Amino acid sequence: MRCFSVKKLKENGGEKVGKRIAEFVRRETVLSVAAVLAAVSCFFVTPDEEYLGYIDFRTLILLFCLMAVMAGFKQMGVFRILSAGLLQRVKSGRGLTLCLVFLCFFGSMIITNDVSLVTFVPFGLLALEMAGMEKQICAAVTFMTIGANLGSMLTPIGNPQNLYLYGRSGVSAVSFMALMLPYAALSALLLAGAVFLTFRRETVSCQVERPAAPPKQRLILYLALFAVCILTVSGVLPEGVLLVIVLAAVLADRKELLAGVDYGLLLTFAAFFVFIGNMGRLPQFCAFLESVLTGNERIAAVAASQVISNVPAALLLSGFTDEWRELIIGTNLGGLGTLIASMASLISYKQIAVRHPEKKGSYLAVFTLWNAVFLAVLLAASFLME
């Protein structure tokens, strides 16, 4: 009897562990894949002192600090205050949608596409519901998501792959933005045109409650921290100094803000660094991938992004080509297309699934259609611009 109880206890324990692992893999799919790839690559290249050289600590520190600072702004409600002020001036359904879309578009240039969608999509859903625009929610959120992904491509800090490729390429911030400016400008025109075609000028009332203003001292603190982040991205300050300043300030202010950092993303980067580093030491693999990439970097980046998303695509392909211009364009345009082409797009999908589960299928269809249209137009334009 006792043996039976112990056996059953072990089986139950095994089931719980299995469920936890399955839940983790479902929640952190990209991290799980990256970890498996890194682990498998270690069988081909025995761990040694060169492993430490794989990790781009500068990129990891910049990502960590930016996410910590954005968590502070979000906790204070800064983004909701700004967006509420804008929405109170809106008089039509078309105007409301344009406002929401370009909040994501311009906001993502500074606060990243992930933070933009985490902040503005729940707020936008509330505004659309209050305006009686439930039927147009799928289209509106789709354009908000496309707006965040396309707006983020303009700046080096707009998304994780830009931050990484900006650091690896060695180009100046001005040169980076000059490269992506035509695409951002065309994207803005396409977004405005799509909204005008899809939404009418019917009058709506959208009175969104404006949150209380944040304490001035805290606002000044996080503005100063953000300025320090920008100085570090620009190469004025070393990343070690930035890490010390941000950690000290956040711990002194509210240490729970550190829970708002996406550690899964940081670990994903680290795992891909190990995988890419190991693969780079295998001559046959290098020769194969370089032969595939040569002359096809942009298309390869777009195609890879559709399957593994654009951040891992940037990390993977950067180890085998020096065509930074092509990778920057390809991985940014590659954020369009499938739902996982940009992992930030999953944020919007999850919000729809929670608040309007009956619209999941419709949203996925609308999202895929419009993403395909934007990707086709922008990719064609990218070759015509040459």
Give structural notes.
- This protein is mostly helical.
- The protein has one domain.
- 75% of the residues lie in helices and 0% in strands.
- The protein has 18 helices and no strands.
- Helix 2 packs parallel to helix 12 and helix 6 runs parallel beside helix 17.
- The longest helix has 26 residues.
- It is globular and about 65 Å long.
- The model has no long low-confidence stretch (mean pLDDT 84).
- Its main location: membrane.
- It comes from Candidatus Lachnoclostridium stercorigallinarum.
- It is found in: Membrane.
- It is a multi-pass membrane protein.
- One of its GO terms (biological process) is transmembrane transport.
